[in-house]
C-alpha cells in the first residue's frame, strides 16, 4: 500500500483529538489549580469628611475637612498605604467674630488597612497636631488633635462604608491585598484535591488582615493551597494533618529561592476537634501557625532556610525559651531549654515550670513551640500569658512589633 | 560551495557537541559521588567539626563518618587526640555522648562511646556544606529502612544498614539535615537496636 494514501484509522483520529483536548485542559488555568477570582476585591478609595469643625470661636462659620485613603492600606502594599488629610486654613477675627477661609492644607500619613485600621501622621504637623485617626468598623474615623498637653477628638464620617463590607473575599482580593496567591488543589503528591469555599477565604482574610503589615513583609510565602488530606513523603495519606508549610520544592525550585514556598491547609483544620473546639478558630489558627513557619524560614537574602535550625529567628527563639535565658552558652546538655538529643534522635525541653510550651503539640520541637505560642498569642492571649509570660512578651516585642490581640483581633 | 562547507562544519560541530554531552553525562553517571566530592570536602577548624562526604569511605566495611573516626574501632582516647576535648560529655544509660560544636549554632556533633569505643556518630549538616539526598541515592540506591523523624515536619530517616549509614532528609527539598554512622549490621539487628527508637508514625500534624 502506498503509505501516502494509507487509510485513516478512525480510532487514531479520536485518540489525537482527545489528546489535544487533554493537553488544552491541562494547560487551562483551572487545571493549574488557581482559584477563580470572583466578585469585588480590588483596593478601593475611601473618602471621609467632617463639615462641622470650628473656625476659631465662631458660632456660625464651620470648616470642611476630608480624609482619603485606600481600604486595604499598607496591608495591600506600599502603593495603598498613603492617607491624605485635607482641611482649610483660616484667620479668625475675635473682635468681630468672623472667620475667613484663606486656603487648604494637606497632611500625608499612613493607613494600616482594614475596617478598624489606624492612620498615623508624622508629628509635629500643625499648630494643632493631628497624630492618629482610628477607623471604627469601617463607618467613622476618630481622629485625635492635640495642643501641648491637651487632646481632643473629632469624628469624620466615611462616605462609602460599603468598601469595607465586601461580602465575598476572593482569591484575587487576597492576592491584590497581601501578595499571596490562593489556590485550590487538583490533587498531587502532597495532598488530595480540594477547593476553597467563600467562607474559608473569608477566614483566611480574617487572619491576614490582623497580622501587622511589617510582619507580613518578613515571611517567605507565595501560595496558600487548600487540600483535602496531606500525603506524606512515604506516600501515605494523613487525614489528621491540619496544615503544612513547604519551604521549597526542589523539582521546580532547585535553589530554594523562595519561589516555591507554600502553605497547605487540610480538612482537619476545618473541624472543632482541635485545641479551640471551634472549627472557624481552628482554621484561622492553623493558617497563622503555618505563617509562623514561613517567618522562621525567611532569609533576608530572599531565599529560604532549608533547615530551620540555621535560621537566626529559630536560634533566637531557642535562646529566649531557655530555663535560664541569662546563660550565654548554647549547651542544651545543661538541660536549659530546647535540645536535640542523639542517639536516638529526639527533641527534649527542659524549662522553667512558669514558662512552658503552651500546648501538647508545642512540645514536638522548638519551631512548633514558636508556631503554637504565636497562635495562642493571637487567639488565646490570656492562655499564653498564663502558661508562659516569657513567650508572650517575646512574641509581642520581637514578632508583632508591640501589637496585642483579643480573640484574634488587634486591640 | 562555501555555504555547503559552512553547513557541513555546523553539522560536524553539532555532532561533536552532542557526543560531548553524552560523554559528560555518561561520565557523571559512572562516578555519582563526584559532585558530592566537590561540594563535600571535609572541614575541621578550631570551632566546628563537620564531614560532608556523603558516601564516606568504608574502610574494612565500617563507616567513617568523621575524618579518622571509624565506628566500632576508634577509642574514646583516639577521639580526644583527633578532635580535642569535647565541649561537653553527656552520660546516658547505654554509654556517654561526647559533644562537639557543629556548623549549626546550638547543634552538636554527637559521638556515642560504649565500652571506650565509638559506636554511633551523628553529624548535623550546615547549609554551606549541604548534601543533596539525590546524590546519596545515586550512590547507595534505595535505603534498607525508612522511618519518620522527630527532627522537623516532612523529615524522614533513611537507613542503609549494610553500610552503617542513616540520613535525616527532606526529600522534597533534596536536602540532608543529619548524617549518622553506626557499625554496619543487618536490618533485623538494626530494628532491635538503633531503629527501635525511631517514630513509626509521623510526629507532626501541622
Topology:
The complex is a heterodimer of chains A (411) and B (206).
Chain A lengths: L9 H18 L17 E10 L7 E9 L11 E12 L4 E14 L6 E3 L8 E8 L3 E8 L2 E9 L12 H8 L2 E4 L13 H13 L2 H4 L6 E4 L3 E2 L5 E2 L4 E4 L15 E4 L13 H19 L14 H9 L16 E5 L4 E5 L15 H14 L1 H7 L1 H11 L5 E2 L2 E2 L1
Chain B lengths: L1 H29 L3 H6 L24 E3 L2 E2 L5 H8 L4 E5 L2 E7 L6 E7 L2 E8 L8 H8 L4 E4 L7 E5 L4 E6 L4 E8 L4 H6 L14
Antiparallel strand pairs in B: 1-2, 3-4, 4-5, 5-6, 6-10, 7-8, 8-9, 9-10
Description:
The complex is a heterodimer of chains A (411) and B (206). By secondary structure, chain A is α+β, with helices and mostly antiparallel strands. Chain A has three domains: 45-164, Lipocalin (Beta Barrel), CATH 2.40.128; 180-306, Zincin-like (2-Layer Sandwich); 307-411, no CATH class. Chain A has nine helices and 18 strands. In chain A, the strands form five sheets. Chain A has an eight-stranded antiparallel beta barrel with strand order 1-2-3-4-5-6-7-8. A four-stranded mixed β-sheet of chain A has the order 9-10-14-13, with helices on one face. In chain A, a hairpin with an 8-residue loop joins β5 (118-120) and β6. In chain A, α3 (198-210) crosses α5 and α5 crosses α7. Chain A starts with 9 loop residues before the first helix and ends with a strand. Mean pLDDT of chain A is 86; it is low at 1-11 and 21-40. By secondary structure, chain B is α+β, with helices and mostly antiparallel strands. Chain B folds into two domains: 1-30; 36-197, no CATH class. In chain B, 28% of the residues lie in helices and 27% in strands. Chain B has five helices and ten strands, in the order ααββαββββαββββα. Chain B has helices at residues 2-30, 34-39, 76-83, 133-140, 187-192, and strands at 64-66, 69-70, 88-92, 95-101, 108-114, 117-124, 145-148, 156-160, 165-170, 175-182. In chain B, the strands form two sheets. Chain B has an eight-stranded antiparallel β-sheet with strand order 3-4-5-6-10-9-8-7, covered by helices on one side. The model of chain B is unreliable at 1-7, 26-47 and 52-62 (pLDDT under 50). Classes of the chains: A alpha+beta (411), B alpha+beta (206). Chains A and B meet through β13, α5 and α7 of A and β6 and β10 of B.
Amino acid at each position: 500500500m502506498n503509505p501516502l494514501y494509507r487509510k485513516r484509522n478512525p480510532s487514531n483520529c479520536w485518540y489525537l483529538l482527545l489528546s489535544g483536548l487533554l493537553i488544552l485542559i491541562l494547560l487551562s488555568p483551572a487545571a493549574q489549580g488557581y482559584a477563580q477570582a470572583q466578585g469585588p476585591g480590588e483596593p478601593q478609595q475611601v473618602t471621609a469628611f467632617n463639615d462641622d469643625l470650628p473656625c476659631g470661636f465662631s458660632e456660625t462659620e464651620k470648616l470642611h475637612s476630608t480624609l482619603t485613603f485606600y481600604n486595604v492600606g499598607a496591608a495591600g502594599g506600599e502603593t495603598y498605604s498613603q492617607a491624605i488629610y485635607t482641611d482649610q486654613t483660616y484667620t479668625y477675627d475675635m473682635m468681630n467674630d468672623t472667620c475667613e477661609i484663606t486656603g487648604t492644607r494637606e497632611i500625608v500619613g499612613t493607613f494600616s488597612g482594614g475596617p478598624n485600621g489606624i492612620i498615623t501622621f508624622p508629628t509635629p504637623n500643625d499648630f494643632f497636631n493631628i497624630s492618629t485617626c482610628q477607623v471604627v468598623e469601617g463607618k467613622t474615623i476618630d481622629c485625635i488633635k492635640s495642643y501641648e498637653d491637651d487632646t481632643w477628638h473629632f469624628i469624620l464620617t466615611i462616605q462609602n462604608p460599603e468598601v469595607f463590607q465586601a461580602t465575598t473575599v476572593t482569591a484575587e482580593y487576597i492576592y491584590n491585598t497581601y501578595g499571596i496567591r490562593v489556590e485550590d488543589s487538583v490533587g498531587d503528591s502532597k495532598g488530595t484535591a480540594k477547593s476553597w469555599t467563600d467562607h474559608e477565604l473569608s477566614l483566611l482574610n480574617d487572619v491576614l488582615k490582623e497580622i501587622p503589615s511589617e510582619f507580613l513583609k518578613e515571611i517567605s510565602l507565595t501560595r496558600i493551597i487548600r487540600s483535602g488530606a496531606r500525603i506524606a513523603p512515604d506516600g501515605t495519606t494523613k487525614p489528621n494533618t491540619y496544615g503544612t508549610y513547604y519551604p521549597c520544592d526542589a523539582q521546580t525550585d532547585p535553589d530554594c529561592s523562595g519561589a516555591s514556598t507554600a502553605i497547605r491547609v487540610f480538612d482537619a483544620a476545618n473541624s472543632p476537634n482541635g485545641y479551640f473546639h471551634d472549627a472557624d478558630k481552628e482554621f484561622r489558627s492553623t493558617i497563622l501557625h503555618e505563617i509562623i513557619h514561613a517567618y522562621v524560614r525567611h532569609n533576608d537574602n530572599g531565599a529560604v532556610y532549608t533547615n530551620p535550625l540555621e535560621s537566626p529567628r529559630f536560634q533566637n527563639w531557642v535562646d529566649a525559651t531557655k530555663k535560664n535565658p541569662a546563660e550565654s552558652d548554647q549547651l542544651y546538655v545543661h538541660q536549659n531549654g530546647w535540645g536535640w538529643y542523639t542517639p536516638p534522635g529526639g527533641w527534649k525541653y527542659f524549662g522553667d515550670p512558669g514558662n512552658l510550651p503552651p500546648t501538647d503539640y508545642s512540645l514536638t520541637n522548638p519551631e512548633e513551640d514558636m508556631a503554637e505560642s504565636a497562635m495562642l498569642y493571637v487567639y488565646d492571649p490570656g492562655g499564653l500569658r498564663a502558661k508562659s509570660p516569657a513567650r508572650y512578651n517575646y512574641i509581642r516585642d520581637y514578632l508583632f512589633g508591640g501589637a496585642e490581640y483579643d480573640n484574634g483581633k488587634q486591640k | 560551495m562555501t555555504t555547503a562547507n559552512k553547513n557541513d562544519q555546523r553539522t560536524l560541530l553539532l555532532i561533536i557537541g552532542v557526543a560531548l554531552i553524552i560523554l559528560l553525562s555518561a561520565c557523571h553517571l559512572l562516578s555519582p559521588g563526584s559532585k558530592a566530592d566537590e561540594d563535600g570536602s571535609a572541614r575541621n577548624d578550631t570551632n566546628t567539626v563537620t564531614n560532608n562526604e556523603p558516601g564516606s569511605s568504608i574502610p574494612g566495611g565500617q563507616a567513617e563518618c568523621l575524618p579518622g573516626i571509624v565506628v566500632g574501632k576508634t577509642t574514646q582516647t583516639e577521639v580526644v587526640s583527633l578532635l580535642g576535648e569535647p565541649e561537653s560529655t553527656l552520660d546516658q544509660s547505654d554509654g556517654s555522648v561526647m559533644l562537639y560544636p557543629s556548623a549549626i549554632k546550638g547543634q552538636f556533633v554527637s559521638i556515642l562511646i560504649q565500652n571506650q569505643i565509638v559506636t554511633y556518630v551523628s553529624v548535623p549538616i550546615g547549609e554551606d556544606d549541604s548534601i543533596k539526598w539525590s546524590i546519596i541515592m545515586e550512590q547507595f540506591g534505595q535505603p534498607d529502612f525508612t522511618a519518620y523523624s522527630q527532627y522537623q515536619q516532612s523529615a524522614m530517616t533513611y537507613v542503609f544498614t549494610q553500610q552503617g549509614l542513616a540520613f535525616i532528609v527532606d526529600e522534597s527539598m533534596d536536602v540532608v539535615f543529619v548524617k549518622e554512622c553506626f557499625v554496619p549490621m543487618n536490618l533485623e539487628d538494626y530494628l532491635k537496636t538503633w531503629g527501635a527508637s525511631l517514630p513509626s508514625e509521623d510526629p507532626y500534624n501541622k
